[in-house]
């Protein structure tokens, strides 16, 4: 005769915090992962700061390509700092609780920095395309003004578009479950706890991924297709080799970045029985590129390598 008050109260209940459990299936010994993660984080910070100092001090590096590399270094440090301190707090101090606003803020920051990194890769690909395919027009096309406009556009695009992710996640109703089998607040991991329909969140995630990451990847592929076509037309093997060598470091980073993105998307979409794999890949994708990017560029780029040795006061003879 009377309505069930328990059901009514339950439907109005909203959790006040989420609990990040860490790496699924290995909670008993996941703290051992803290050491390599901490080392990768320290490498990411120190290497990227060194890159920024080197680019700032060496006038020979005051070129568009290195300006983009400097912006990439800032983005990488932001991405690593967004997630690693919280993961280490979970593994070292069992600080698994995170408030809803903090969780949604982290969700936004991750999407923003990852999209920004993708955008900078596009700018660097365009820079290499003009340098190799339109060398006579390089100084007139890739100017300081171009770098500023491209950076502002990327900041606005990648700062505004991902806002929909945390906004839609915050509109879900979290009435009972609050434990997330993850080290960070991923969109799908958080919204899977909601008591109402989260279809709009999943659709928005897919559309956003295709609109930003998909379009960026298409532009990068087109740029390098034109670069390869131009290089193949060169009669000199030495000239072709020199042209491609300037793109090697960029290509290595792009292949790693987008390959992991695609693998993560496939594993999430397939609903893998071993959730550790997508979670582990997700964490690595946000930690390894910030540490890997400056190392790869330092190893593969002669100008940057020589400038780094000069800043570190090392003997550059033979390098």
Strand order of the largest sheet: 2-1-3
Number of strands: 3
Low-confidence runs: 1-12
User: Based on CA inertia axes, which overall geometry fits?
Assistant: globular
Average pLDDT confidence is 88
Helix share, percent: over 70%
CATH topology: Rhopdopsin 7-helix transmembrane proteins
Provide the domain count.
1
Q: What is the CATH domain class?
A: Mainly Alpha
| Strand residue percentage | under 5%
The largest sheet, given as strand count, sense and whether it forms a barrel, is: 3 strands, mixed
Query: What is the CATH superfamily?
Result: Rhodopsin 7-helix transmembrane proteins
Please write the string of helix (H) and strand (E) elements: HEHHEHHHHEHHHHHH
Tally the helices: 13
Kindly name the structural category.
mainly alpha
Q: Architecture in CATH?
A: Up-down Bundle
Cα-based radius of gyration, to the nearest Å: 22 Å
Summarize the structure.
It is found in: Membrane. By secondary structure, the protein is an all-alpha fold.
Structural description of this entry:
The chain has 319 residues and is mainly alpha-helical. The protein has one domain: Rhopdopsin 7-helix transmembrane proteins, CATH 1.20.1070. 72% of the residues lie in helices and 3% in strands. It is built from 13 helices and three strands. The radius of gyration is 22 Å and the shape is globular. Residues 1-12 have low confidence and may be disordered. This is Olfactory receptor 56B2. Keywords: G-protein coupled receptor, Membrane, Olfaction, Receptor, Sensory transduction, Transducer, Transmembrane, Transmembrane helix.
């Amino acid at each position: 005769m009377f309505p069930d008050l328990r059901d009514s109260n339950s439907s109005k209940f909203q959790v006040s915090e989420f609990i990040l459990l860490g790496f699924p299936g290995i909670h008993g010994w996941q703290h051992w992962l803290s050491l390599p993660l901490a080392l990768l984080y320290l490498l990411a910070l120190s290497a990227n700061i060194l890159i920024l100092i080197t680019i700032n001090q060496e006038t020979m590096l005051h070129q568009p390509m290195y300006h983009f590399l400097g912006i990439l270094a800032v983005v990488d440090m932001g991405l690593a700092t967004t997630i690693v301190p919280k993961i280490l707090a979970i593994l070292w101090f069992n600080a698994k609780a995170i408030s809803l606003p903090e969780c949604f803020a982290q969700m936004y920051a991750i999407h923003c920095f990852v999209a920004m990194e993708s955008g900078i890769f596009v700018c660097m690909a365009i820079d290499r395309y003009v340098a190799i395919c339109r060398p006579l027009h390089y100084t007139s096309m890739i100017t300081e003004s171009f770098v500023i406009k491209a950076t502002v556009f990327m900041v606005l695009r990648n700062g505004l578009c991902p806002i929909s992710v945390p906004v839609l996640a915050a509109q879900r109703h979290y009435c009972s479950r609050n434990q997330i089998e993850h080290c960070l607040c991923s969109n799908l991991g958080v919204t899977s706890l909601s008591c109402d329909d989260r279809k709009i969140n999943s659709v928005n995630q897919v559309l956003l991924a295709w609109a930003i990451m998909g379009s960026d990847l298409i532009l990068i592929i087109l740029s390098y297709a034109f670069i390869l076509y131009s290089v193949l037309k060169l009669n000199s093997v030495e000239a072709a080799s020199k042209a491609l060598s300037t793109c090697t470091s960029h290509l290595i980073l792009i292949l790693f970045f987008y390959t992991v993105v695609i693998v993560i998307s496939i594993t999430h979409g397939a609903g893998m029985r071993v959730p550790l794999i997508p979670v582990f890949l997700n964490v690595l994708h946000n930690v390894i590129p910030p540490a890997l990017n400056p190392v790869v560029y330092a190893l593969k780029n002669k100008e940057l390598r020589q400038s780094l040795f000069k800043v570190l006061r090392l003997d550059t003879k033979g390098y």
